[in-house]
Task: structure prediction
Amino acid sequence: MTTLKKDSLLKGTLILALAALVARMLGMFQKIPLEYMLNSEGQYAFFVANQIYLILLAVATAGFPSAISKMVSERMERGNYEEARRVYKAALIFGAVAGVLLTLILFFGASYYATTIVKESSVSLAVQAIAPALIVFPVVAMMRGYFQGRQMMAAGGISQIVEQFARVILGLALGYIFLTLGYSDTTSAAAVTFGSVFGSIAAFVIMIYYSRKLKKQDARLSKTSAEARAALLPNQPYSVNKGPKLKFRTIYGEILRMSIPALLTAMTINLVYTFDSSFFKRITEKVYTSVQATDVAAILGIKAQSLAGIPPILAIALGSSIVPIIAAAFARKDQSEVNKQTSMVMKIVCISGVPIAMYLTVAAYSVTGLLFSSNEGYDIVALLCAGTILQITMMTTNSILYGMGKQKQTMYNTIIGLMMKVVFSTLFGYYFGVYGFIIGTTICFLSITLLNIRLIKRDVSLHVMGRKWIPYIAAVVISTAACWGAERAMLSLTGELAPKLSYLIAVLISGSILCVIYGILLLKLKVITAQDVEALPGKLRGPMRKVMRVLRTG
Result:
């Protein structure tokens, strides 16, 4: 029988990054055919339903997964295995109750939300269709948090991939069937959102499988430990003194103290996007007609937000991996480990996330034209993707602070950022429409990032790039400029070809040039050194050593 093992930061990050990448790509895959299948009204209905669902899902879990991960990690580090299991049991009960309540609220409140807040009654059915997914998913989230606390990332990663496959494929299939049968676009959009119900069930089945497997493994290890003790002390009867059980009231109190602050930080992106979907028509009524507002909101929700979700993938994975590791280091009072892990994670996200965001910004014309029915709104895509650089740093610093036990301070920073979002999106959106909303989003991310970094530096000796900041920025700027030039050149040279083929060539060539030049500059300018390469997994060290020898940077 295969044994479930702990994952290191790097391995756990790779697992979660792969899962997040697959999930994001599938999510984008879902939105690409949706843009072809549905008109703007149907796309907008899906956009609104999906965002309100994500918000209520976060409320249903109340930040519990991250709290469970931290609490379980600390107790396992101290050897309090029974308390860790009690924490898990309490979380499962909460998830089950919260899921049922939130499902009822969303289903029966859909009409009020659609007509009164969104001011578009046609989205009501899509909101109701997605509501049943909330029944099971909070429990799945609790289970993932427990496995992350045990530093076993594979279970959550696999369940996430299976969930997305079921949600996307079955949802699109159901929507296509409804369209074929002659139903309206908004009704077909509701059929697509119902795919989330299939996804939640599939994820639940996977987590049940891993939970049963872990339970059997823990039982075997416990029995082995008891037999070993009996062999050492044959004349003393062995009994397990579990002591007084940790009360659920105590567990919920501890979880809520951590999870309520974590709730806001975990919901930041969803709150920002839900604000956009809920109030877009209200705020921009002086800029657009009702039909125009629906069209632009569909571009923002289907095209821009799906592509803007790609650059932060690694930050999401790192956030899930870094919390239990930093929490365990704090429990041991190992400050050097905290400094090391914090600096490492910041360097990784800077090196990996920023060029992806810049690529999607400068190549937005070709990327949008290739993936969707037209490149209409590519400027909206470019502007939102540029802001994801700050989203990446915001998400990573949130996770670091959470692992350090600074949940309340992080919550205050998030509240300030969200207030900036509301104020500036309302102000600029009133005059500049969708561009004002994106400016407000970017200001929100920037504010939280700056406040978080200031807080981190109070307790951590943060060493990200040091004197390598200028070479790093030079590598980003030069490679991005080369990417932009290559895209323009390819579009000019292939102008006589079919548009999709022209966009494909431009995307492939410009992306390849960015990767090659960026990688070479990182090594040539010694942003990445031999010491950094030695920290990589064994399978990556060999190829990287060869590359460095070729470039004579080793």
About this structure: Confidence is low (pLDDT under 50) at residues 232-241. Residues 81-118 form the longest helix (38 residues). The CA atoms of residues 264 and 415 lie 8 Å apart. DSSP finds 22 helices and no strands in the chain.
